[in-house]
């Protein structure tokens, strides 16, 4: 696969050099917005378009299930830094229907971990549901993430936080939290 990636890259770079592809955009989000969403492949090159954004308009943060875990502050740190240092004024937490993190069980993940060489003792001593970020309900997960961001002591209070739920097939958005 790496060779195919590098081959595609050579073609891409050639298109940029010939002016056929835009390459230079500002590193700051032109629309002063940030999207926090899931890593689901159905959202790639789809979510931003469904929201009316193009390259350079928004910052995007992704993780499995767009989950903000209690013991892991990296998502909130990233959003707060974007607000403080990069001019972000609006945050969109966008979950989606049919999320894989709702379909997983702690038992399945533990089994996969051991099969892939993770020390069984580590697996046994880990709350897999919490560690992996397994969710029970996509809407509730969006609400939870919005509240955690809003209530973070690091988050500037003038940043607007919205919660949305997307259909990964049609792109339709439903407002969960304003």
UniProtKB/TrEMBL annotation:
Keywords of this entry: Lyase, Metal-binding, Zinc
- State the EC number(s): 4.2.1.1
How the cofactor binds, per note? Binds 1 zinc ion per subunit.
Under the GO molecular function aspect, what terms does this record hold?
carbonate dehydratase activity; zinc ion binding
Question: What's the source species' lineage?
Answer: Bacteria, Bacillati, Bacillota, Clostridia, Peptostreptococcales
Look up the domain of life of the source.
Bacteria
State what protein this is by name.
Answer: carbonic anhydrase
Q: What class of enzyme is it?
A: lyase
SUPFAM superfamilies in alphabetical order: beta-carbonic anhydrase, cab (SSF53056)
Asked whether the keyword Lyase is assigned, the reply is yes
């Amino acid at each position: 696969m790496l060779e195919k990636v590098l081959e595609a890259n050579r073609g891409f770079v050639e298109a940029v050099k010939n002016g056929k592809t835009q390459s230079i955009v500002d590193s700051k989000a032109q629309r002063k917005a940030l999207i926090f969403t899931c890593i689901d492949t159905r959202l790639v090159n789809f979510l931003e378009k469904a929201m009316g954004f193009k390259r350079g308009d928004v910052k995007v943060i992704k993780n499995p299930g767009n989950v903000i875990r209690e013991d892991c502050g990296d998502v909130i740190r990233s959003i707060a830094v974007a607000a403080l240092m990069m001019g972000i004024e609006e945050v969109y937490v966008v979950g989606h229907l049919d999320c894989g993190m709702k379909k997983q069980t702690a038992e399945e993940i533990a089994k996969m971990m051991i099969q892939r060489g993770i020390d069984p003792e580590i697996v046994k001593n880990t709350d897999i549901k919490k560690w992996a970020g397994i969710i029970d309900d996509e809407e509730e997960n969006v609400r939870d993430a919005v509240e955690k961001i809003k209530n973070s002591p690091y988050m500037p209070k003038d940043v607007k936080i919205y919660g949305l739920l997307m259909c990964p097939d049609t792109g339709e958005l439903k407002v969960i939290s304003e």
